[in-house]
TrEMBL record:
It holds the Pfam family UDPGT. The keyword Glycosyltransferase applies. GO terms for molecular function: UDP-glucosyltransferase activity. Keywords: Glycosyltransferase, Transferase. PROSITE patterns: UDPGT (PS00375). This is Glycosyltransferase. Its EC number is 2.4.1.-. Belongs to the UDP-glycosyltransferase family. It is an enzyme of class 2 (transferase). It comes from Urochloa decumbens. InterPro entries: UDP-glycosyltransf_plant (IPR050481), UDP_glucos_trans (IPR002213), UDP_glycos_trans_CS (IPR035595).
Length: 474
């Protein structure tokens, strides 16, 4: 009887891009959430080229779901050949191409699973080419956008922006020119992702593919980005002649680690610090500075006189072929820095439990690369931000955070060769001591209240998710 019940249960398939942690983690969290509401969920990992890529993707995905809820499973598609016509250094182009190479295997997997039992196919935007697979098999297909509603508004509108903008200007040579997308503050051309120029046709294709879908799911919440939400819902962001799919804002999708299990030693250090007194610096899994920039940050922190916790990764000019090795702090930091700051600072090698750190009462500020998951973690912690964007869509996120949501101020010089120690010291001190910093902190705490309301039993995000789940169950 139990087996018959299981066979009758509807399945949601989530198709994830290969080896991209910033996308895999929220996709897995979406899968856990949907499975917890009584649907079978299969997360499909495609675009894998060898055992190493498969092992990395599997460890990231399964590590994100430390305790699999009943009904959540993972499936790896067969290996594909890395396209020879795609430059090996172009990570974005490679990801699009590898996902496309797995389309036929995805089709066969869905056929074997019985399309009539698959109630939804959920795609990351890197896997957007699979929207045609869903249409061919008659499976309702959705996009899960792992970044902001504002970023989604810009992406949907990008075909219109492209018509108004030359390729040269898209590469950031437009001086002080700005892009104007409905619902968003003006975006400087230099803050558009470099990949827009290098992979323009692919991103234009994503906008078209999204318009073909049954719905757009976003890891954000309406009350955080009301103008962008209204612009999308009212059809202002899709190009003329294109339909606007239903928008489902279900975020933030965040899960803290289990209390009391393998607690990181940095949390014990935070326990001993006064409330809202520590500036936390962390720049994501790919955010690394060269040796000179690292020293400028160190001098700036010391000059600021503020308490700090700094997650420091090995700089690219110190790699020696060991990308994941811990940094040599003695060789990397200014002479005597650790000794002089030992009463006020903590340098953590390579990794810290960022969500738990940002949720800690001692943390009063966050210097961030503006990755969207990091932004949501800061919002859930009620922590104001200093924006230091580095790659991908982070520069656009900086614009949305500073000019739109007003939850951050920018670290000037992020777009130059070096952010100087004086800028680091000045901004950190401003954030922690000034009236402006206190106002920013109050806005961050108000955003945290809105986020918790959105996730509450009758909140906007929870309601949107439950409506989607019931739709899939039917």
């Amino acid at each position: 009887m139990a087996n018959n019940d299981k066979k009758a249960k509807k399945v949601v398939v989530i198709y994830a891009p290969p080896v991209m942690i910033s996308h895999l983690v929220p996709l897995v969290e979406l899968g856990e959430l949907v499975a917890a509401h009584g649907l079978e969920v299969t997360i499909v990992l495609g675009g894998l080229t060898d055992d190493a890529a498969a092992a990395t993707s599997s460890s990231i995905a399964e590590g994100a779901a430390t305790a699999h809820p009943a009904g959540l499973s993972f499936h790896r598609l067969p290996y594909v050949t890395r396209p020879r016509d795609v430059p090996a250094h172009d990570y974005v182009l490679q990801t699009f191409a590898l996902a496309r190479a797995s389309n036929s295997d995805l089709r066969e997997f869905l056929r074997a699973a019985s399309p009539s039992q698959v109630s939804a196919l959920v795609l990351d935007f890197f896997c957007g080419c699979a929207v045609d697979v869903g249409a061919e098999l008659g499976i309702p297909t959705y996009f899960f956008f792992t970044s902001s509603i504002s970023g989604l508004a810009e992406m949907l509108y990008h075909p219109v922006i492209h018509e108004q903008t030359t390729a040269l200007r898209l590469r950031g040579h437009g001086g002080d020119d700005h892009v104007h997308a409905p619902g968003n503050p003006p975006i400087p051309l230099r803050d558009l992702p470099a990949a827009y120029a290098d992979c323009l046709s692919l991103f234009l294709g994503v906008a078209e593919q999204m318009c073909k879908s049954h719905g757009l799911i976003v890891n954000s919440f309406r009350s955080l980005e009301p103008r962008a939400t209204d612009a999308i819902v009212n059809g202002l962001c899709t190009p003329p002649g294109c339909r606007t799919p239903p928008l489902h804002c279900i975020g933030p999708l965040l899960k803290l680690g289990e209390a009391g299990t393998n607690r990181h030693e940095c949390l014990a250090w935070l326990d001993a610090q006064p409330e809202a007194s520590v500036v936390f610096l962390c720049f994501g899994t790919m955010g690394r500075f060269n040796m000179e920039q690292t020293r400028q940050v160190a001098r700036g922190l010391e000059r600021s006189g503020q308490r700090f916790m700094w997650v420091l990764r090995r700089p690219p000019d110190q790699d020696d072929g060991k990308l994941n090795a811990d940094p040599d702090l003695d060789a990397l930091l200014p002479d005597g820095f650790l000794a002089r700051t030992k009463d006020k600072g903590l340098v953590v090698k390579s990794w810290a439990p960022q969500r738990e750190v940002l949720a800690h009462a001692a943390v009063g500020g966050f210097v961030t690369h503006c990755g969207w998951s990091s932004v949501l973690e800061a919002i859930m912690g009620g922590v104001p931000m200093l924006a230091w964007p580095m790659y991908a869509e982070q520069r656009m996120n900086k614009v949305f955070l500073v000019e739109g949501m007003q939850l951050a101020v920018v670290m000037e010089g992020y777009d130059k060769e070096m952010v100087g120690d004086e800028e680091v010291a000045t901004k950190v001190r401003w954030l922690m001591e000034s009236d402006g910093g206190r106002e920013l902190r109050e806005r961050a705490r108000a955003a945290r209240r809105r986020a918790k309301e959105a996730l509450s039993d009758c909140g906007e995000s929870r309601t949107s998710l439950l409506e989607l789940v019931e739709q899939w169950k039917r």
